Amino acid sequence: MRAFDYVRPDTEDEALALLAEPGTSALAGGTNLVDLMRLGVARPERVVDVDRLGSTEVVERDGSLWIGAGVRNSDLAAHPVVRERLPALSRALLAAASGQLRNRASTGGNLLQRTRCVYFMDPTKPCNKREPGTGCPAVDGLSRDLAVLGHSEHCIATHPGDMSVALVALEAVVHVRTAEGDLSIPAVDFHRLPGDEPHRDTNLPAGALVTAVEVPLTPLAGRSTYRKARDRRSFAFGLVTVAAALTVEDGVVADVRLVLGSVAHKPWRATVAEDAIRGRAASGSVFDDAVRAELAAARPTDQNAFKVELARRLSVATLHELAGGRA
Amino acid sequence: MTQPPASAFDLTVNGTRHALTVDNRTSLLDLLRERLRLTGTKKGCDHGQCGACTVLVDGRRTNACLTLAVTLDGREVTTVEGLADGDDLHPVQQAFLDHDAFQCGYCTPGQICSAVGALDELAQGWPSHVTDDLTGEVEPSAEEVRERMSGNLCRCGAYAHIVTAVQEAAR
Ligand SMILES: Cc1cc2nc3c(=O)[nH]c(=O)nc-3n(C[C@H](O)[C@H](O)[C@H](O)COP(=O)(O)OP(=O)(O)OC[C@H]3O[C@@H](n4cnc5c(N)ncnc54)[C@H](O)[C@@H]3O)c2cc1C
Ligand code: SF4
Ligand code: FES
Ligand code: FES
Predict the structure, then answer these.
(1) Is it true that domain B6-81 has CATH number 3.10.20.30?
(2) Which residues have a Cβ under 8 Å from the Cβ of A118 and sit 6 or more positions away?
């Protein structure tokens, strides 16, 4: 690991001033950053410990739940309001990592976790995300776990997280502080597609701090869930994940959210499918046709075509479960 | 050569307070093993993937390998060496002995610390990935214990007895 200076500022203003310097990284729970530093993928000259600055409060205000950036994944998953009124969020968090990792992982750090693409994580390999302009060996290499939607020739990595997929389905907003002032970024716009700038995972301005996540407490959010398909039953990143919410009135879909995880550089809000389901009968064939229409845009590699079929089955099964059927 | 950057901090380990100055890169795991000579905590992967390094920080189970020691100023760490009360083993340690819940023993300190943390989480009513009703009561069923202990791998495959031991300790 490269040697670095360690600073623990007492205020957000101090932290923002420190983060404005090049070569500086914020540190929260450390479960991603320390790992990447040890691998030589992240090489900060200075680490700014914001772990104790981040609010650990979860409060209900104006019809939303406000979650401080410092709230641990384990505490959030177990929070009574999250369990009762935002089940997709609780389930997504519980499906991620391990008990001991969730105890450290913070809300802010979880949003900003990096891809698990094996080339990205190996500093001896070229990688456009780690070192812009060096190429993408994954396109013709190990791509089984990588993107099938929205990727570019420059990068086919996925955002590997679970929490953010649920946050997009729940129409959360990420609150951010920069040296110039406060911003709020809808969760759906927080992560970005790679295009020709795959080194940028998110639309968070450089040196900014995530301060809180706001999740509206709607009736639809209360009818949400999260499912994850992976290579083993626990403690593994997703191959395909689904966050969905559904309300049905008199057999007709009143409203729906469908978001796919681990299939793109960002949580993939399936708006084509949502539009084809809303107002229609809550039936398996409606769900299936709608999801097929969404996935028509998929461009898998020869190693990950299975993810498209998996995404179809998992989406339909999840919607079916929410509609009251067992699946 | 200039010295690599280091920081000073206070840390309590198994009830003993230490005033320390360490290279900023030092993990809690390396601090425990190499500086404080508490070699009960084991290094498996050094990447958060195996759980061999699990200790309790302020009572919560944590991977010591991904924790930078300098971040722990003022915290309290409990390792497997700190669980017993004199000659009286912690109930989880006793249950591991009674149920033969190990073979080579390498993963065992991490399993035991993880189980202590997991039982506390169960007692607080935290749900898990396999809990059907997120708002209901949680029971230490075999399925629940397996899921909650999934962050601890055992190369010898002693899982069946580990699950029984943790269930026993939950009673
Ligand atoms: C073995 C293993 C398995 C895992 N499995 C899963 C899984 O199945 N699903 C899943 O979703 N995740 C998984 N994870 C990833 C884990 O969820 C993340 O490592 C964790 O959420 C990161 O949070 P942290 O607080 O530890 O972040 P850190 O490691 O401290 O930081 C991560 C990044 O976020 C930045 N950052 C942190 N806080 C802020 C802030 N407030 N403002 C701005 N930037 C900030 C840091 O600068 C850094 O770039 C796994 C990790 C490991 C090691
Ligand atoms: S897919 Fe993206 S992260 Fe992976 S090697 Fe290519 S550029 Fe790097
Ligand atoms: S050594 Fe820490 S999890 Fe493997
Ligand atoms: S007892 Fe040998 S690794 Fe678990």
Answers:
(1) yes
(2) A138, A142
